[in-house]
């Protein structure tokens, strides 16, 4: 049965293709599933980097004297 998921065609250099093919062979997986997993990992890493930048910015802008205490928050 054909897949209903959207498809993406990717053109890559021979060394990149060889690396993906090696991973697929080692893991007993298809090229498509390896590329899918690599894309997911890449997106997760990019999200982590973006959230880390937000956290760093908040950490530098944090003013402890203006912060609420636990009693103020939960009272």
- Quickly count the helices: 3
Distance between the termini: 59 Å
Proportion of strand residues: under 5%
What is the number of E strands?
0
Query: Largest sheet, described in full?
Result: none
Pattern of helices and strands = HHH
Low-confidence stretches: none
Q: What does this entry show, briefly?
A:
This protein is an all-alpha fold and 75 residues long. Helices cover 67% and strands 0% of the residues.
Architecture overview:
The protein is mainly alpha-helical and about 80 residues long. It has 3 helices and no strands. It has a domain of about 50 residues.
Topology:
Elements: H1 14-27, H2 31-61, H3 70-74
Helix pairs in contact: 1-2
Notable features of this structure?
75 residues, mainly alpha, 3 helices, 0% strand, elongated
């Amino acid at each position: 049965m054909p897949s209903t998921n959207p498809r993406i065609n990717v053109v890559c250099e021979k060394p990149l293709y060889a690396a993906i093919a090696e991973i697929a062979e080692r893991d007993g997986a298809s090229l498509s599933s390896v590329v899918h997993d690599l894309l997911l990992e890449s997106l997760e890493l990019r999200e982590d980097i973006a959230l880390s930048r937000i956290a760093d910015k908040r950490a530098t802008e944090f003013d402890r004297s203006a912060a609420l205490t636990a009693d103020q928050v939960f009272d």
